[in-house]
Amino acid sequence: MDIKLNAEVYRIGVSIGLLTVEDIVKWADAVIDQSDAPPYELIELSLSAKKKIDDITLSLMEIRGDFNDNDLPPKIILGLLNEYLNRPEDIASVIEKMDKLIKYLSDSDEWIVMEIHFLSDGYYLAEKNIFGDLKEVHTDLKEFLLHFIDYTKLLS
To answer: Is the pLDDT of residue 90 over 90?
Structure first.
């Protein structure tokens, strides 16, 4: 289990509104339960149910460790968004989270940024009855997010 990678996914997830403080506390509790000597930062996170999101994201950044691929956390988040896209009514929420995720993507992920913009624009046009329909946008969005489903296996 790569605690730093998980912490980064939770930091981004809570920053874009995908995950909650409760999700972070549950994760920290689970890691503490599995560890003989949990890092102090995790204990602090476990006790942070009433803290502000900014304080929690700071605590998540302070977790020590290193992972080789800084591109992984946003891709894991995109994989997690699959779970939240069950109906066409969910499109707005998923698009909003993806728009916020753009600032966490690296320069090497330009194709992802372009696809997010394409999907976001398609949603806007379909929603306003200018061009296309929401069903088609839902299908396109689902196909895009399926590229990232395997990344969720890296989250523990």
So the answer is: no
